[in-house]
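INTERNAL AUDIT FORM
Audit reference: QA-55
Scope: verify that the stored structure record matches its stored sequence.
Auditor: D.O.
Record contents follow.
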Amino acid sequence: MLKLAIIGAGSTYTPELMEGIINRKEVMPVKELVLMDIDRRKLDIVGSLTKRMVEHAGLSCKVVLAEDYDTALENADFVFVQIRVGKLPARILDEKIPLKYNLIGQETTGIGGFFKALRTVPVLLDITKRMSQLCPNAWLLNFSNPSGICAQAILDHTKIKTIGLCNAPIGIMANPVNALLGEGATAELDYVGLNHLSFLTSIRANGKDLLQEAINGNDDLLEKLDMIMGFGKDVIRKVGGVPSYYMHYFIHPRASLKKLHDATETRGEECMRIEEELLALYSDASLFVKPEQLSQRGGAMYSEAACALAESIYTDNNKIHVVNAYNNGAIPFMADRDVVETRATVGKNGAKMLPATVHGGEYIQGIMHSIKAYEYLTVKAAINGSRTDAISALLANPLIADYDTAVACFNEMLEAHRDYLPQFG
């Protein structure tokens, strides 16, 4: 019988996660579920809906609401972490301030994602410190962004068992297969990259690598891929793989920046509005299932990514997942201790990374090395509060890369987020 803890349970994503837990009630017997959040209003609303969902599903599971780590973590078997330090107002600052300096303002990419990492990594390390005392054998499944940087920090600086995850790979891997082979078809894919910097490098079916066939001259296949992913046939050919949608910021930075400048509201402002609408829905005592409107918030497939991962660990089923974990030889041009986002079989001992295919891939190799350097420096800056490491990280990121602009924007954002960055004095 399992105890599950959800840290950041006041998130409107929690019903999505609960759906995944309920759907696995036959294979994952949960005896206690602790929802922990520092926002009492949201915790009460989401917690009440969670209790109704559990009751409606017929789970004999105790649901506890908590505002402290210790209640949540003590003797936990799995710890799901979905925190947002500074909440959505901090995200909006991450999106708006960079635009003043003509930099991309985005939640996980560029200087906005950098400041999200600076705020998030110390809190995650604090959680792991409590875990080492209260539930040292528990698995930490983190989908707080930026997931890859957070995984690198936890793996490098703690002994906690952890795997980082993201919901993006599930959709990214399904869409091209549907485009090439039809809805519901199956194929073997190689997914190579870092979190929010990733590529499909192989799509194998019926004894053929359809992606390489498309890149090497099959315009019909390439046209189908382009219709789904929207990068253009030339980009796919020149890159040597199908970029994930976050790659728009790196491949089309000017167009991405213009789109952000032209928007009437930031994504964070939109999410704040959607969140209040969802909380109003969740407050309806007659609601006992995940509402369809949650899909607008961007939480689709989080339950599948997180709960399927927990199921694989608990049942030792060794199914394949895309995870954020140490490379350990999977991607040949990355170091073993680089946290990468790629395929792995997952069982009771965690993730066993699978060898990844990259044909050519000089661009893929180059951009991954550049952003990996940025990620290592970001982890250092988040822990030691070093301005030198912080500015070095920003210079290593091709979306920033200008010293004067980096320093000026860093100074303003540091002041704006001062309450959440005590490590910078």
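Auditor finding: record pair retrieved intact. The chain has 17 helices and 13 strands.
Action required: none
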